[in-house]
């Protein structure tokens, strides 16, 4: 993965405009074949506490409709989990 950024701006309007552009961006999902060495590296990060999922809220199964509604409206930062 390659991530590029431009130097930070001193202009508040430009900073806010960039922030809005980031909020409008959509991620695309794709599937890959897992490789044992990559999974081992991820396991080490998880066990060391260096890689943790961001869970916004955990809903009971009875509130699944509310969880789905939050996802539809895009008001979620992180993951939504359903407790079964």
Strand order, sheet with most strands: 1-2
Report how far the terminal alpha carbons are from each other: 35 Å
Radius of gyration: 18 Å
Helix content: 40-55%
Average pLDDT works out at 76
Tally of helical runs? 3
Strand content is 5-15%
Q: Which residue ranges are poorly predicted, with pLDDT under 50 across at least 5 consecutive positions?
A: 1-5
User: Which structural category fits the helices and strands?
Assistant: alpha+beta
Number of strands: 2
What is the makeup of the main sheet?
A: 2 strands, parallel
Report on the structure:
There is one protein chain. Helices cover 42% and strands 13% of the residues. By secondary structure, the chain is α+β, with helices and mostly antiparallel strands. It has one domain. A two-stranded parallel sheet has the order 1-2. Strand 1, helix 3 (64-72) and strand 2 (79-83) form a beta-alpha-beta unit.
Short account of what is shown:
This protein is of the alpha+beta class and 84 residues long. Helices cover 42% and strands 13% of the residues.
